[in-house]
Specification:
This protein is an all-beta fold. Helix content is 0%, strand content 51%. It has no helices and twelve strands. The strands form three sheets. Strands 7, 8, 9, 10, 11 and 12 form a six-stranded antiparallel β-sheet that branches. Bound molecules: calcium ion (2 copies). It comes from Ataeniobius toweri.
Length: 156
């Protein structure tokens, strides 16, 4: 066993639980698997998987916290993430990941990622698309002295 973390996909067969696939984290201590959400990002009817690793760290480019996106290849997830979203250094981006429904009404499911250590805390909204996930967050919300304000980073 190492400390890279893993996510196991388990199916129920009769009365037994069988491990169907294991996705492994890439960095020791990244807390890969701290948050796991299944959501159909590209609207093909197959749930895709988001896995948070809030203590992932990268120096070049500087990043802290990651969310790994695994697209569903029908019955199995690709063993390598199709995309890795990262947050600001020390932000614990990916501590919380939640399906948010279709926020921008484009027919694709969207999701929210929490970065609790970024300033006073921050939630970023990422949108699903035919290809999987938008490259940049579409919306970032910060908390500031009890009020919430929204900043559009990318206008759709
Ligand atoms: Ca899908
Ligand atoms: Ca959407």
């Amino acid at each position: 066993m190492d400390a890279r973390g893993s996510v196991m996909l388990v199916v129920k067969r009769c009365d037994d639980l069988v491990i169907q696939q294991t996705l492994r984290g890439q960095q020791v201590g990244s807390y890969f698997g701290n948050a796991v959400v299944a959501v159909d990002l590209n609207g093909d009817g197959w749930n895709d998987l988001l896995v948070g690793a809030p203590f992932y760290f990268s120096r070049h480019p500087e990043a802290g916290g990651a969310v790994y996106v695994y697209m569903n290849g029908r019955e199995r997830f690709h063993s390598e993430p199709s995309m890795v979203l990262t947050g600001p250094v020390g932000s614990a981006f990916g501590m919380a990941v939640a399906a948010a429904g279709d926020l921008n009404q484009d027919g694709f499911q969207d999701f929210a990622v929490g970065a609790p250590f970024h300033d006073t805390g921050c939630v970023m909204i990422w949108t699903g698309s035919k290809e999987g996930v938008s490259v940049e967050p579409s919306q970032v919300s910060h908390t500031k002295v009890g009020t919430v304000w929204f900043q559009d980073l990318v206008r759709q």
